[in-house]
């Protein structure tokens, strides 16, 4: 299997509770390596652009409001089949359905405040990484 990259966000509910280190530790223990990371306060425009695919969905405005409600940590992760590995360690979107030992089962407050975002494909990972990082910021 090839070493690939994926994109991750540690969301405001997790940063507010000082869980950045705990989440990152779980990612690293799953075999992923952080090759870029920064703590940012997402602007409304950034959040709207990032989640534009959901613009017509009823939850779009609440999602944008949540994502700008506090700092987030955006990360580029690298590892064997990184997208799948990250999605496995994150767990199901709804923490009630997430497996024991996953980030969302361990840390999520609700389906909305579910602590992390992760790319769902290699193609989207590339788009999402480029949205927040310049190539020279990724050092592995």
Automatic annotation (TrEMBL):
Its main location: cytoplasm. The active site is at 117 (pros-phosphohistidine intermediate). It is an enzyme of class 2 (transferase). The keyword Kinase applies. Coiled coil: none annotated. GO terms for biological process: CTP biosynthetic process; GTP biosynthetic process; UTP biosynthetic process. Signal peptide: none annotated. Its EC number is 2.7.4.6. It is found in: Cytoplasm. ATP binds at residues 11, 59, 87, 93, 104, 114. Residues 3-140 form the Nucleoside diphosphate kinase-like domain. Its cofactor is Mg(2+). The keyword Transmembrane does not apply. Keywords: ATP-binding, Cytoplasm, Kinase, Magnesium, Metal-binding, Nucleotide metabolism, Nucleotide-binding, Phosphoprotein, Transferase. GO terms for molecular function: ATP binding; metal ion binding; nucleoside diphosphate kinase activity. Pfam families: NDK. It catalyses: a ribonucleoside 5'-diphosphate + ATP = a ribonucleoside 5'-triphosphate + ADP; a 2'-deoxyribonucleoside 5'-diphosphate + ATP = a 2'-deoxyribonucleoside 5'-triphosphate + ADP. GO terms for cellular component: cytoplasm. Homotetramer. HAMAP family: NDP_kinase. Major role in the synthesis of nucleoside triphosphates other than ATP. The ATP gamma phosphate is transferred to the NDP beta phosphate via a ping-pong mechanism, using a phosphorylated active-site intermediate. This is Nucleoside diphosphate kinase. It comes from Novosphingobium pentaromativorans US6-1.
